[in-house]
Write a structure and sequence with these properties.
This protein is of the alpha+beta class and about 160 residues long. The protein has helices at about 25-30, 85-95, 105-115, 125-130, 140-150; strands spanning about 1-10, 10-15, 50, 55-60, 70-75. The structure holds FE2/S2 (inorganic) cluster (2 copies). GO terms for molecular function: 2 iron, 2 sulfur cluster binding; metal ion binding; oxidoreductase activity.
Amino acid sequence: MTKVSMTVNGKAVSGEVEGRTLLATFLREGLGLTGTHVGCDTSQCGACVVHVNGQAIKSCTAFAADLDGAKVTTIEGMANPDGSLGTVQQAFQDHHGLQCGFCTPGMVMSAAALLAENPKPTEAEVRHHLEGNICRCTGYHNIVKAVLAASGQDVGQIAAE
Ligand code: FES
Ligand code: FES
């Protein structure tokens, strides 16, 4: 076992992990942050996306032991300090960007990473960026709409589906 220390959602945390412990497992089972979902464990679905040192990564592809000292943000860290939904989360709610919600944490984290790099993406850029995130329910249309709305763009002309 190896001791690993990180800053997760602004809080210093540490734990003992095996060399094979995935970041997703450490977050969910070690820290109880079950908002990060695991849909496949094989880097396909994107449900497990978190930010590590400002970059969106699939947390099922990273070993926790390799991330000593990292700054990690999970979906639990996306709310406002008063506990209300953050901008991207609120846009998903406002524009019906989810149904079952299983993919939503990863979608929100991927979208937030895009908006940090590209504050006013086009619809095509949003769709391209979210290619690594699979949703089985929504058909993606309202997810894309939510991301565009979160960027402050007018989505009034985009028909709801
Ligand atoms: S659980 Fe990580 S990509 Fe599916
Ligand atoms: S809302 Fe169900 S998988 Fe996306």
